[in-house]
């Protein structure tokens, strides 16, 4: 899956959808925003699905629990931001490697 296909899949997803993301490295030059959808690593290789730059912003939804599961983040300043009100976000089985001052921000 290319960066463009990855972004198009997210843009096409509706709240409550689950996107299975194949193994690969995604170099995000900007932020990646998800609203009430689940992004799940479906990679079967050792490195799995890697996001090397940018921030994943999870916005809470009134009816659906957004989820981010199984990703590896490398060398980003801010890996994850959760914002808004609504259903709790689920963040599990993720890791950071080679951090360049990375952080998570929960609002």
Walk me through what this model shows.
This protein has 107 residues and is mainly β. The chain has one domain (3-106). It has one helix and twelve strands, in the order H-E-E-E-E-E-E-E-E-E-E-E-E. The chain has one helix at residues 3-12, and strands at residues 18-21, 24-27, 32-35, 38-41, 49-53, 56-59, 67-69, 71-74, 80-83, 90-92, 95-97, 104-106. It has a four-stranded parallel β-sheet, covered by helices on one side. It has a four-stranded parallel β-sheet with strand order 2-5-8-11, with no helix packed on it. A four-stranded parallel β-sheet has the order 3-6-9-12, with no helix packed on it. The longest helix is centred in the N-terminal third of the chain and has 10 residues, at 3-12. The chain is globular and about 35 Å long. The termini are far apart. The mean pLDDT is 78.
**Main beta-sheet annotation:** 4 strands, parallel
Give the % helix: under 10%
The tally of helices reads: 1
Q: Could you give the distance between the termini?
A: 31 Å
Our count of domains comes out at 1
Coarse structural class: mainly beta
Average residue-wise pLDDT: 78
Overall, the morphology is globular
Order of helices and strands: HEEEEEEEEEEEE
The value of Rg in angstroms is 13 Å
Low-pLDDT parts are none
The amount of beta strand, in percent, is: 35-45%
Strand order of the largest sheet: 1-4-7-10
Number of strands: 12
């Amino acid at each position: 899956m290319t960066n463009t296909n990855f972004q198009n899949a997210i843009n096409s997803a509706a709240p409550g959808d689950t996107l299975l993301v194949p193994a690969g490295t995604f170099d995000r030059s900007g932020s990646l925003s998800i609203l009430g959808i689940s992004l799940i690593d479906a990679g079967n290789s050792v490195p799995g699905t890697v996001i090397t730059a940018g921030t994943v912003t999870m916005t809470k939804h009134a009816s659906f629990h957004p989820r981010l599961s199984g990703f590896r983040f490398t060398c980003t300043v801010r890996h994850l931001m959760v914002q808004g009100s609504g259903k709790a976000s689920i963040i599990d089985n993720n890791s950071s490697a080679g951090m360049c001052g990375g952080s998570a921000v929960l609002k």
